[in-house]
Specification:
The chain is mainly α. The chain has 9 helices and no strands. The protein starts with a helix and ends in an 8-residue tail after the last helix.
Length: 222
């Protein structure tokens, strides 16, 4: 029984990896059921046995992306003293997921399932629950990023995530361009440091402004 379970799990993972590969190579809509089956070296009938439908397979692909992101976030920590160094730590955490080519497949699945009116209510609910779990881990890291700053404003709290994720996404997109991008990729490290310094100055400025407005230092952000 245990051997059968391992075999089933191995087959499921093989199909998921084949789907990710096809989406990266051909795009979400051109990654047909037949293309995925051919890449996995299995018949579509076997894939149907494990997943039932293409929607279920795509949802499994998205859950694989969520699992990888949760794995990166749950083991991550931010412990640097200087704000600039904290931002660099935060970026490295985000880069571990968002700067990988597979993310381009995961985001295609997320966007298409989210906007396709044929997507089942159960699939939407599953996606929402996974997003909430990830948000909890991101908030844990954000609290450590801002510890000691007194930052409580939601817009400013979320700002580093969106900015740094954008830089990580830019990095992975540059790598997919059909010409030599070595110098562009090399410059990402310098850009990351500059961005960390710029955001740190913004945080320090906002913290000082908040303290002046209230006449006393803010409480630490929670």
């Amino acid at each position: 029984m245990a051997t059968r379970a391992r075999t089933d799990q191995g087959t499921r993972q093989k199909v998921i990896e084949a789907a990710i590969q096809c989406i990266l190579e051909q795009g979400f809509y051109r990654a047909s059921s037949n293309a995925i089956a051919q890449t996995a070296g299995l018949s579509w009938g076997v894939i149907q046995y494990y997943f039932g439908s293409r929607e279920s397979l795509m949802l499994a692909v998205l859950e694989e992306g969520n699992r990888r992101l949760m794995e990166e976030l749950s083991k991550a920590d931010i412990d640097a003293v200087e704000m600039t160094d904290r931002f660099e730590q935060y970026f490295m955490i985000l880069e571990g997921y968002y700067a990988k080519p597979e993310y381009l497949a995961f985001i295609q699945v997320l966007l298409n399932l989210s906007h396709d009116p044929r997507t089942s209510a159960q699939a939407i609910q599953t996606m929402t629950e996974r997003a909430r779990a990830i948000d909890g881990e991101l908030r844990r890291l954000t609290a450590k990023l801002f510890v000691g700053t007194g930052i409580r404003r939601g817009a400013l709290r979320d700002f580093p995530f969106h900015v740094l994720r954008g830089l990580a996404l830019s990095e992975v997109m540059i790598r997919t361009l059909p010409y030599d991008t070595a110098n562009l990729v090399k410059s990402v490290s310098a850009q990351r440091r500059m961005l960390a310094k710029a955001v740190s100055l913004l945080i320090e400025s906002e913290t000082a402004s908040s303290a002046e407005a209230t006449g006393a230092p803010d409480q630490d952000w929670r």
